[in-house]
Amino acid sequence: MERAMYTLYYAPGSANLVVHLALIETGARYELKKIDIENGEQRTPAYLAINPLGVVPTLIVDGVAHTEAASLAMLLAERHPDARLAPAVGSAQRADYLQWMFYLANNLQSLFRQWFYPGDHLAEGAEAVKEHSRIGIEKGWTFLDRHLAEHGPYLLGDTFTLPDLYALMLMRWARHMPRPATEWPHIAALATRLKARPAWQRMCEEEALVEWA
Known about the structure:
The chain is α+β, with helices and mostly antiparallel strands. 52% of the residues lie in helices and 9% in strands. It has helices at residues 16-26, 45-48, 69-79, 94-116, 118-121, 126-151, 162-173, 185-195, 198-206; strands at 5-10, 29-34, 58-61, 64-67.
């Protein structure tokens, strides 16, 4: 049976990164369609017709458009179980897998949006919002680093899974922060391990990423 074909709408280095990595890791067939965020292509009628929120990523699955990076990556892991990006339903590690995916999405990723776009949250207090997000992100790295020190080398112990790719995307986003994620030693070791994977190298080539590649 021929594998499914996906279409990923992306902007280089954005939240699509984890979905792109998941596509590569699963061995799925896909095509990429770049959205020019800087020139506002995400707000054009053509793009809003498939993603009314006007954001990336959008993934076309069986002809239907779907959004939300974490859910898209989890869907790919579910549709391609042979890639072993997620523990099987009912397995001992399944709860930990879900916990990490929701932690990264609901805590760390949401704080990054405040860091990058503080004025969207509180126009008159943008600097306060940014400082709040920085503190929260650094607390998150401390939490992850401690966990890796005690239970690593991956977030689920000895097993590489989707949450590791999600964390890697967020590490890249932190590269210009006052304390990049790689200043935490166990996170730095995880980043080195993950960036050596062929999927990371292929993703960087396809999205033309050269910084922190």
